[in-house]
Amino acid sequence: MKDNRIKQHPILDVKEQPTITFYWNKQPYQAQKGEVIASALFANGIRVFGHHHKDGSAQGIFCANGQCAKCTVIANGVPVKSCMTPVKENMRVESVEGLPQLPEVQERPNIADIEEKDVDVLIIGGGPAGLSAALQIKKQSVLLIDDKAKLGGKLVLQTHKFFGSVEDSHAGTRGNQIGQILAAEVEKQKNVETWVNSTALYVFYDKKVGILKDDTYKLVKPKVILNTAGAREKFLKFPGNKLAGIYGAGAFQTLVNRDLVRPTKRLFIVGGGNVGLIAGYHALQAGIEVVGLVEAMPRCGGYKVHADKLRRLGVPIYTSHTVASANGEETIESVTIAQIDENFNIIKGTEKTFECDTLLIAVGLEPVNEFAFEAEKAGIPVFSAGDALEIAEASSAMFNGKIAGLRVAQSFGNEVKNIPDSWYEKAEILKSHPGPIYDYDLPREETGVMPIIHCLQEIPCNPCTTICPTNSIRIKQENLMGIPKYVGGCIGCGKCVAICPGLAITLVDYRQESKNPIVTVPYEVMNHQVKVGDTVPAVDINGDFLADLEVVKITPMKNNKTNLIRLKSPKEIAKKIVSFRIQEAEVSKPLSQEVKLQDEEMVCLCERVSAGEVRKLIKQGITDLNQIKAITRAGMGPCGSKTCDNLLKQLMRQEGIPFDEIVENVRRPVFVEVPLGKFADGEQGGKK
Questions:
Q1: How far apart are CA 151 and CA 125, in angstroms?
Q2: d(Cα 158, Cα 90) in Å, to the nearest integer?
Q3: Which one, of 309, 304, 301, lies nearest residue 283 by Cα?
Q4: What are 222's strand-pairing partners?
Q5: What is the SS3 assignment for 394-424?
Q6: Pairing of β 92-94 and β 19-24
Q7: Which residue ranges of the chain lie beneath pLDDT 70?
Q8: Cα–Cα distance measured from residue 338 to residue 349, given in angstroms and rounded to the nearest whole number
Q9: Domains of the chain (ranges plus CATH)?
């Protein structure tokens, strides 16, 4: 049996966990106690969870967040989402082959008494925004719910150091640590009750919210709702997009960083925003080959320091390119990319095909805002924060959650402090898009010791200025968006090198030998072993080779798990050195042989509706998504149009339909699938 578990990680502590036995299609396998079914299957090398009833195509995962239904399996006779269902001792798990055969009802279920709870404030979502908001509400009773086993939201998945402000968003601290800090603070607050493993199902017109808590259905009646439910990942239409092995960045990070499962050997990434760039870095930290990254725009939309980091480590980035086809039989075996023109049309003859077993989709997020809409219809005062309000970085979500929490408290007439204008100004800065890129402003001195700052783009970030004991690095602007500058006075402590979230600061020390100074670079991919005496290929900011240099010293920074690698360098290139390459160019070499490209792209994976079917209807003048659903079943599947809604609207725009002429798809209750027995049977779903 395969064992795809991560045994060593440069950032995360890998501890041996107790195991249990479960059965997959009648064969016994080992799982770690408490992990979800999907992770247990991936850990055992199982990536196909079943086959679709319409076309027999393989099913795997996409979101690993309970938003879609691609990962459905049969567990002890009941269809469940494998990404949200914990595996249990001797659990019988089976693949879905065609339409699932449901168990026969042996007797009529009892109607359960449903527990009801009144609360002042219901916060839906225990991520950065929800946790930060809860900390600001001091006098009202607060119930904070989250559908995962632990609080923190997407922070749990983030092993990189955060940008933003040290004071307001823990900049320079790793995301998973920030999640722990916020969760611990919330747990201490006596007026806040937290429910984990609790999924909000719907906001009803009688001003009650249905919640499935630990498989028990409850009704909560809040006076105010704060929606901090986060965002769901967008899908992408391209030929072959129904193959197993194509999934979102959140699913990938859940497997790798939360569950310590290595789900792939060769990864290709679509999307050059921060999500895709960071996922690529996380893959390298997990010992996964990153074949390449493709971005449709002429420049990556994420922070330049993130893109630079990938290039330096040996990952090629193809801008003004798109996916032409995902290729394979059941699972993806290769991806074909091509250059595109200014109208995003593929330029024939520019295709390249790369071998990979996973295609990671990171093409944007959309807010989980349905709870806010239904609360408004029901007449419940509702606020939103974080990605549920507006897509931005987690540092922004924390600060906006803080503001939202005070606004909620004010809505009860509490005498809480007024929110200063400076908070709103800082909130705008923290969600700012990356600013302009500047040229180097390198120090001219070649004596003593000094930091070299390779951060050339305005982004909201200040850890280097905050941690410097001699105030040697400063940002001219007070709004976090300036470029940090070295102003003199460095003592060579290396703290700025270790804390920089973009790994964009090095230290050049001429004190021992001016002709061959020592260059200190940060390093966080320790599963690629580097030892004193090794020779490494030093590179510049763009990843271009400079020279093979000797490693003369390694200093582990135990407080943030960044290693400081000291290289002996010729004076001529010392200030240009940013890092060293770890991935060989052979990893990213295109295939020489031609492959058969797929010719069908899906917009609705649940019901297997192709883009061509929908285009025909649009050309006939149909712009009502409900009518398209009635004809094709697009949006009628178990995910409730969460995946296809955006793709259907994309098709409308491509066919020249103005946005205001599109009739929205009517959302149906409930928002998340749940067995009927949870509502009716006291044994399964009511009071026990």
A1: 9
A2: 32
A3: 309
A4: 119
A5: HHHHHHHHHHHHHHHHHHCCCCCCCCCHHHH
A6: parallel
A7: 1, 100-112, 477-479, 680-688
A8: 8
A9: 19-100+235-361 (3.50.50.60), 115-231+367-430 (3.50.50.60), 449-453+484-588 (2.40.30), 603-688 (no CATH)
Predicted local confidence at residue 135, as pLDDT: 96
What is d(CA 367, CA 370) in angstroms, rounded to the nearest whole number?
Answer: 9
What is the distance of C-alpha 546 from the center of its chain? 33
pTM of the shown model: 0.92
pLDDT tens-place string over residues 139-153: 999 999 999 999 999
Helices (H) and strands (E) in the chain, counts: 16, 36
Q: Are 555 and 532 in contact (CB under 8 A)?
A: no
3 state DSSP class of 587 = helix
**Residue 328 pairs with which residues in a beta bridge?**
332
- Give the residue carrying structure tokens 């499962």: 261
Does residue 515 contact residue 570 with C-beta atoms inside 8 Å? yes
Q: Beta strand pairing status for 209-213 and 96-97?
A: unpaired
- Quote the tokens at residue 657: 């339909």
- Residues 425, 430, 433, 436, CA torsion sign: positive
Strands (E), 99-164: 115-124, 142-145
Task: Report d(CA 284, CA 254) in Å as an integer.
Answer: 15
C-alpha to C-alpha distance for 537 and 544, rounded to whole angstroms: 10
Looking at residue 351, what is its pLDDT?
Answer: 94
> Residue 221 and residue 208: Cα distance in Å, rounded?
5
Q: How far is CA 415 from the centre of its chain?
A: 38
Query: How confident is the model at residue 493, as a pLDDT?
Result: 94
- Angle of helix 394-411 relative to helix 175-188, nearest 10 degrees, comes to 20
pLDDT at 569: 96
Q: Give me the pLDDT at residue 428, please.
A: 85
- As a whole number of angstroms, the distance between CA 472 and CA 447 comes to 16
pLDDT, residue 479, reads 67
